[in-house]
Each structure stands twice: as C-alpha cells, then as structure tokens.
Write a structure and sequence with these properties.
By secondary structure, the protein is mainly beta. The chain has one domain: Methylamine Dehydrogenase, Chain H, CATH 2.130.10.10. The chain contains two helices and 28 strands. A five-stranded antiparallel beta sheet has the order 1-9-8-7-6, with no helix packed on it. The longest helix is centred in the N-terminal third of the chain and has 30 residues.
C-alpha cells in the first residue's frame, strides 16, 4: 500500500496537472487563430546602422584586489568599509619630458609633499624579512682559506650609518629606481633617482642631530636632503664620471638624457629623440671615456652618442624585447654586454658594425640563454660578468681573456656558460625595484666584488669567484634596499628602498 501523500505534495501535484492542462488549451487556441488569420503584408524595414557607444570616462581609481590570506589577515573577514577609498580622483595625465636647460633653484621639491608611509610590505612568496641566508654556519667549511676569511672579516665590520636610521633618510619622494655614489673620496655623497623623475642628494658627512636624549618627547631633527625634479618619468640610471666630479648624467623613461653641472646647478638637455612624439623609454646608461655615451631602451635598442661630433647618435635595434640593463667593459669599452627580456645575455663588439641604415648593428660575439628573463649584466675590471635573472640565480661568467679577442672574435658555447651560478631570490614583484648586481668600479683594496640586494631586507656582497663575503643588515631597515651600489673606491655600500629611504653602510 502506497504511503499517503502529505498536504504539500498533494497540492504540488495538483498544480502541475492544472498547469499542463492550461498550456495545452492555450496552444490549441493559438493554432486555431493562426489558421483563421490572413497572412500579414511584408514590410521592408531599413536596416539600422549600429553606432559605437561613447566610452564612459573612468573617474574613480580603485585599488587592485589583493588576497587577505597572503597579506597575513583572515580571508573570512571580507572587505571593510574603511578599505574603500572615498575620494574620487581624475586619472593622472601622462607627463611629457622637458627640453632645454633648467636651473635647479626652480626644480626644488617641496618636502611637505613627500609620503613617509612604509606601506610596501607585500613581497612575493619566498621572501622572509629578517631571516638571514648567510651566517657563520655557511662559512665553516672554508675557514682554512685565510684570504677569504680576511675579506669576510673586513666586510662584516661594515655597520649601518649612525647619523640617522634608514627610515629617517628619505632621499626621494617615491620609489628609488637608480642610485650611485659620487666618486669624491673624502665624504660619502649619495645620489638617487625615483619613479617620478626626482633626483635626491644626501651628504652623509653632515653633522649628526643635536637633541636632548633625556627628553622622551624630543623629536630628532631630520637630515638635510636636496631633491630636484629633473625628469618627468622614472630616472633609470645615474652616472657620476670618475674623470669629471662636476658632472652627473641621468637617463629616464621620458626618453631623455640630462647633464647636471654641480657648480652652476644647471641641468642641460644632453639628448632626446628628434621627434618630440617618439617614446623610447631609456632603461640604462653607461659612459665610455669623456665623449661617448651609450644607452638602452625599453623596446630593445641600444644607442651611442658621440659628443665630439655634435651629439651624433647611432641607434641599433638588437632585440624585439626590453633591454633591462647593460654595461661596457671598464678597460675594453668596445665590448658591450646586454641583458634582455628575451632571456639572453649577449656580448657585442662595437668595433665592427654590420649592415646599413635601420639594419645596422654591432657584431654579436656570443650569447647565453637563461630559463627566464635576465635583468642586468655588469662587467668587472678583471673581465668577470655578473647577471641577475628571474630564474632566481646570480650568474658569473669568466671573460678574463677578452683582451686577446680580435675584432669579430666568436666566443664558443662552452666559454659562454656561467663559471658560477648562485641561488638568489630575485622575485621582486610589483612593489620592489628589480635586483641588479653592481661591481665596485675601482676598489682600493684590489678585491673585485659586487653588491646585490636580498629580498629578506639585506644587501649581499660576493667576490669575483661567487663566494659570499657578507650580508649587510642594520637597525631600522623596514623594506628591501633593492637598489644596491658600492662606492667606486671605498667599501661603502648604499641601498635604496621602495619608499625612497636610504640605507648606508660604512
């Protein structure tokens, strides 16, 4: 015997039967009406031309969505009202480069507009702020090497600058992209360029602040920093020539190269494309002697400027991808090493230019391909090449025989393989400037070494054989000192952060 239906189920089945009957009757009535009605006359309707809807202007800039779990919060909390910006802003117009000469007095940056927030704590997976990757346990096996032990002792004695903590030395308003020491030897003078085109200058020899240490409410006076808006977009390179202490060269994504004369405080336009509408985006800069300047671009070209020939410029298209960094051999400036987004390190000979017109290019001597893009290639005086790559390695290539290469010499595949490959976290993400190795140009102690930032908020020092000499740290470092650089002669090291702060070891 079937179980009795509940009241709800009986009502539901009755509704189904009633709806089925109603649909059937409606269909029969519609069929009769269709047979009885005369066919309607055909009317020609003109086709309507579709018009594109006017785009709605974007007036509100919303933050990029980010995972609360990766940020260290509870993913179940949801979005809070305070996370939503209430201010509606217009999109910032693209800034165009400025031509001609500029007096620095008119370019002084107002310190009140700088943002002192340190909200740049988002790093790619793998970064562990404050966790050392090099300590005494790493060097026990090499204690018998007295020379190496002595080098490590010397570098480990470097300490963080005592005048001010890094958080107090805000050398630029925005994220630092380029940094260098002035070659003057009697005091540490640091120059930094940020993403908005500002050049900051900090003199570490200025006297330390005077304040009452017993007064808990006393505020420490901030250091004196000079900052000038030289460019309208990111400053990608800063060069202070060893042979000319009065000159500072800067390149920028605004497609210009400027020359700052320190005594007169005048910034002159050294080079820009002939067509004002051309956007090359200069990614790196290097100099050869007093009169030759080379630069690379975001579209894969390399240019050479000859100041002796009224700024005559040759531009060669070397790759279809961005050239992130390059350098000239310090003692053999006809040798050019480029690092590119196409995953290659390439060595070129500037003494032999092949092709004509747009097809002209230096002779390619050899190349090595990495698993992922190569960020920078840096020559040492002794002929070692150091590169950083997104495959999380720092590679060192031995090109010490380069002085014997004849014009157009072809480097074999075996010689283009790295001599050392060092595991190194290079996953900077979107908030940290790309990590690049930088050799000390002319070390007073005769030891070739380079500096590269560590994602755990240190600066790593390596020698030409790939042996780590030190891992620099210090109180008050709250962000990755991503742009790291040696003083040309002294064992002074500087690092610039994503919030425009300066870390300095002496």
């Amino acid at each position: 015997m079937a179980p009795a239906l509940s009241a709800f189920e009986a009502r539901r089945q009755a509704n189904v039967a009633n709806n089925t009957k109603l649909l059937k009757e409606t269909a029969e009535i519609g069929a009769k009406m269709k047979r009885a009605a005369a066919p309607p006359p055909r009317v020609s309707v003109p086709k309507r031309r579709k018009t594109a809807a006017e785009p709605t202007p974007k007036t509100r800039i919303m933050p990029t969505r980010q995972s609360r779990r990766l940020a260290g919060g509870d993913a179940s909390e949801g979005i809070k009202i305070e996370d939503i910006p209430l201010e509606i802003k217009d999109r910032e117009p693209k800034r165009t480069r400025i031509g001609g000469d500029m007096n620095l007095a008119a370019l002084q940056v107002d310190g009140n507009r700088w943002s002192d927030s340190d909200a740049l704590a988002s790093f790619r997976q793998g970064a562990q702020p404050g966790v050392r990757t090099f300590d005494n346990d790493n060097i026990k096996e090499e204690e018998k090497d007295e020379k190496l032990s002595s080098l490590r002792k010397d570098m480990s004695e470097l300490s963080i600058y005592e005048g001010w903590l890094p958080n107090d030395i805000k050398i630029t308003p925005e994220r630092i992209y380029a940094l260098t020491f002035h070659p003057i030897q009697d005091k540490p003078l640091v120059l930094a360029g940020d993403k908005k085109g500002t050049l900051g200058i900090f003199d570490a020899s200025q006297p330390p602040p005077e304040y009452d240490e017993d007064d808990e409410d006393a505020k420490i006076p901030l250091p004196k920093v000079a900052a000038f808006e030289l460019h309208t977009r990111t400053i990608s390179s800063i060069k202070a020539p060893m042979h000319d202490h009065n000159t500072v060269l800067t390149s920028s994504y605004d497609s210009s190269i400027r020359c700052l004369d320190l005594p007169t405080q005048v910034s002159s336009q050294l080079w820009q494309p002939d067509d004002d509408g051309t956007d090359l985006g200069i990614s790196c800069l290097d100099i050869s002697g007093k009169d030759t300047i080379l630069f690379s671009t975001l579209d894969g070209s390399v240019g050479r400027i000859d100041r002796r020939a009224n700024g005559k410029t040759d531009i060669w298209g070397l790759t279809d991808n961005k050239i992130g960094g390059f350098s000239l051999h310090p003692l053999l400036p006809h040798l050019l090493a480029t690092a590119s987004l196409d995953r290659t390190l390439k060595i070129w000979d500037l003494r032999m230019i092949k092709g004509k017109g747009e097809n002209a290019h230096p002779t390619l001597l050899g190349e090595h391909t990495s698993r992922l893009s190569v960020s920078h290639a840096s020559w040492s005086r002794g002929g070692k090449l150091a590169t950083s790559s997104y495959d999380d390695t720092v590679k060192i290539y031995d090109m010490s025989e380069a002085s014997k290469w004849k014009v157009g010499y072809q480097i074999g595949d075996g010689a283009m393989k790295p001599e050392n490959s060092i595991r190194h976290n290079n996953q900077t993400g979107r908030w940290v400037t790309i990590l690049k190795p930088q050799w000390q140009i002319d070390p007073a102690d005769g030891v070739e070494k380079f500096a590269i930032a560590n994602m755990n908020r240190f600066v790593d020092i390596f020698d030409s054989n790939g042996k780590q000499l030190a891992q620099l740290e210090g109180e008050g470092i709250t962000a990755v000192p991503a742009v790291a650089e040696f003083h040309p002669r002294h064992n002074w090291v500087a690092g610039g952060t994503g919030s425009g702060k300066l870390c300095l070891w002496m």
